[in-house]
Amino acid sequence: MASWADAPAGDLNPKRPKSAAQLPLLKSDRQTIRLSDTVLDERLRGTRFVSITPRRVLNSPKSTGMDYWSLNPYVGCEFGCSYCYARYTHRYVVERAHDAGKITDAEFLDYRGAHGWEAFEKRIFVKEQVVGALEADLKHVPLGECIVIGTATDPYQPAERRFKITRAVLQRLTRCEGLSFGIITKSPLIVRDSDLLLRLQERNELQIHISLITHDAVLARKLEARSPVPAARLRALRKLVDTGVHAGLIVAPVLPGITDDLPHLDALFAAAKDAGALFVHAGALRLYAAVRDRFYMVLQEHFPELVARYTRAYARQAGAPKEYAKALSRRVEELRKKHGFKNHTGMIDRYRPAKMPVQGELELRGSLP
To answer: Does residue 302 register a pLDDT over 80?
Structure first.
């Protein structure tokens, strides 16, 4: 079993006092279709938004290995969090389009990035005409099933202000009855859609998960450079709850040696309680191979003493070692009890994929200028 260099529990991060100890990690021959005239926007920092036409937008439990259906209005995310496991879903979509002859070699390099992860936050695919595909997909969703929006990319990332794809999805879903919905986001923009969320939960179950891994704004900026500040997310949570929307906090991922110490998590749970959160979920970091290079850049810059320990701990698997995960679960449960949160499983753990998460069958029709 991999370990944090066999370090004792109080020695995972020598820069922290022992009272703030982290948990120990224990043991083609097809005609090329040129992409043309569908670059929707381009930020000054170089992020480009490209239109795609989805053949389907709901990923079934059978295709993902999850226990619920998933929906992502965008492929790629401008927030670009260093630890985001969804980087490889973006690469997978681009590689699949290239293999099918839908993009040229030059476009493939641009949309993929030199190492397969850079383009995740620079080339955002916008699923226009989403409602038609959703209409067809919903016919296959049995009564009582769960649909989670935002499992791979944030549905309220900055692009949503202009394109309103997520709002269009919600408008269609308000006609549903007898389903269960979850939405995961870091963005206060979700408050814009409070009217639709209230309508959605009138005839369905709904849980809004505001994603926040730390209450420390300085630390958050190191880990997720373009995400909304923690205070803004907590204010959004308060507004949703005050409006009557069923909302809480998802602390995922918890980063070993960085955000897993008891004082850190305690402060986060307290902030969630103050913001009116109705629940708190938490889960340890999953470090897929396609994400490691990006995340290790942050470790090397800000937490160099942890690089070797992460390398050993995640050497044989994407998930945290079992003993660590168990210890973290105990810590989270203690904090739930302390702050008065019930331990319920309203949204099944999204960090247990049996297969590679997918973004649906896409027809790329964007282009380089």
So the answer is: yes
